[in-house]
Amino acid sequence: MAKSITSLNAPNPNVSVDCVVFGFDNEKLKVLLIEQRNTGQFEAQLALPGDLVLERENLDEAATRVLKQLTHLEGIYLKQFKTFGDPNRVNNVKDKEWLRTFREDPAARVITVAYYSLVKLEDYLPEAASFAGKVIWQPVDEIPALAFDHNIIVNEALKRLREEFEFKNIGYELLPKKFTLSMLQTLHEIVLGVKLDKRNFRKKLKNSTTIIALEEKQTGVDHKPAQLFVYQSKTLL
Amino acid sequence: MAKSITSLNAPNPNVSVDCVVFGFDNEKLKVLLIEQRNTGQFEAQLALPGDLVLERENLDEAATRVLKQLTHLEGIYLKQFKTFGDPNRVNNVKDKEWLRTFREDPAARVITVAYYSLVKLEDYLPEAASFAGKVIWQPVDEIPALAFDHNIIVNEALKRLREEFEFKNIGYELLPKKFTLSMLQTLHEIVLGVKLDKRNFRKKLKNSTTIIALEEKQTGVDHKPAQLFVYQSKTLL
DNA sequence: CAATCTTAGTGTAAATAGTACACTTAGTGA
DNA sequence: TCACTAAGTGTACTATTTACACTAAGATTG
C-alpha cells in the first residue's frame, strides 16, 4: 500500500508525468519511446518517458526534469494537454518487477499528467548516441503496444497536436533552424494528413511575419537548391 | 502526513477534482461557487465545487459525482481542461480547520484536475432553493478572492471557454432549450467580449444545420416576440 | 557538353466568406 | 392612435480561399 511521506523530497506515490515527444525527419512524424529495463521474466515493453512527481516540484518542473533526465533534452516546447486517471491504467504492464524499480507498490494507482513536446529531430540525433538501446524514435503510424495506457496517451497527444497545428504556428519547433518551404509544407501535410497546394501554401506564408528568408540556399541536393528560412518568434518583434 | 490507504474506497489523499460551472442569465456570465463551512475563527471563503478523487473512480466519474453531490446537476457538458499542481496551492485557505473536514492533513499537497461545465441557468434556478446559502452564482467579472488557487483556475477556464466558443458551437449549453437568436448573440458577445452585427450573425447561422426554428414564438415580452429555436446536435443527424 | 532528371518557384481568375450598413414590422402599453 | 421596443431583413464591397500549369536552377549521365 502507499507508503507514508516522511521527507519533503520523497516521491509523491500518486501522481506522475509522461511526455509525448514528437520529432520529424522530413519523412515521418515520430515519437520518442524508452525501453523499460527488462528484469528477465517478461519481454521488454516500450513506454513514454515519465516519472513520479516529487514532493516539492510543480507539474511543469516535473515534466522538464523527466525529459532532461531520460533524454537530455532541454529548453524545448513542452505543453500539458491532458490528465489520465483510470484506476486500471497500470494493469497493462507485463513486468511488475520493473514497476518496483521506482514504486514501492507496483499495483498502486497512479494518475498521470501528460505533456507533449516538439523537437527538431535533426538537432537531436547526434546526441542520441549516448542513449543507444534506451531511446527509440518510432513513427506514429507504427507504434507497438506500450506499457500502461500509453497508447491512449499518444493518440490523444496526436489529436491535440493536429488541433494546435490548425490554429497556431508551432510547426517550426519540429524543423531544423534553417528550413525550406517544402519541408514546412511536408510537415503540415504529414501532421494534418492532407495534401496541400504549393502555391496556396506559400501565398498564405507571405502574409505571415513569423518566417524570414535568408540569403543562403540549400546544399547537398541533386536538384535546384531551395531558399532557406528561419522562424522569427512573434514575441521578439 | 499522508495516511495509508487501507480500503479500496478510501479517498486518494493526493488528487482532487474541481469544477468551474458556467451559467448565463441573458445578462451576465456567472460561475457557481460554494461557501466553505465556516468553523468560526475565520471569515467565510468561497471556493469551486470540488472533492478528492476516490480510489475506484476515474477522473471524469469523480467530476460528475462532485457536481451531483454539491449542486444536484446531472447530465451536463463537463470537460477536463487543465491540471494544477503547484506545491503551494493550498496555502491560500484561511481556515485550515475546514480543510480537516475532508482531509487528514490540511497542509498536505493536493494536485487538482480542473473541469469546466456549462449549464442553462434558467433550468437550474428552480432547483437552487435546496442549496440556499451554500451555492452562489457569481458574475465572472466580480469574483472575490477564493480559496486555494481557485481564482487562477477560474481564469484559465474562462480562457478555455472563449477558445471553445470561437471554434465550436457549444454556446447552446448555456441557453434554455428554446432560445431566440438575440439570446444566442448576446451570449456570444458576453463570452467573447465583443459587439456583433445582428445581420451578419444571423447570416452565418443560416449555413449551420445545428439550430432549427420552431413554429412557436416568445411570450411575455412587451415588444415584437421573437421566433424560438432549438439546438439540434450534429451527432444525431 | 547536351540531354535528362528533380524539385523550386511563380500568377491569375473564380468562388466563397466576411464586413459594413438602415429601414420596416409586430407586438405592448399609455 | 401613438409611441416605444426589440425583431427581422438585403445588398454592395472587400478579403480570403481555391483550383490550376508552366519555367528555372542545379546535378547527373552518356
Structure overview:
The structure is a homodimer of 237-residue chains. With 237 residues, chain A is of the alpha+beta class. Chain A contains 6 helices and 9 strands. Chain A has helices at residues 59-71, 96-100, 121-128, 150-167, 181-192, 198-206; strands at residues 11-24, 29-35, 46-47, 50-54, 77-84, 111-119, 135-139, 211-217, 227-231. The longest helix of chain A has 18 residues, at 150-167. In chain A, 30% of the residues are buried. The A-B interface holds A 1-6, 12-15, 53, 55-59, 62, 80, 82-87, 109, 111, 113, 167 and B 1-6, 12-15, 53, 55-59, 62, 80, 82-87, 109, 111, 113, 167. The structure holds a DNA duplex (30 and 30 nucleotides).
List the helices and strands and how they pair.
2 copies of one chain form a homodimer.
Chain A: E1 11-24, E2 29-35, E3 46-47, E4 50-54, H1 59-71, E5 77-84, H2 96-100, E6 111-119, H3 121-128, E7 135-139, H4 150-167, H5 181-192, H6 198-206, E8 211-217, E9 227-231
Parallel strand pairs in A: 1-6
Antiparallel strand pairs in A: 1-2, 1-4, 2-3, 2-7, 5-6, 8-9
Chain B binds a DNA duplex (30 and 30 nucleotides) through residues 180-182, 197-200, 202-204, 207, 218, 221-227.
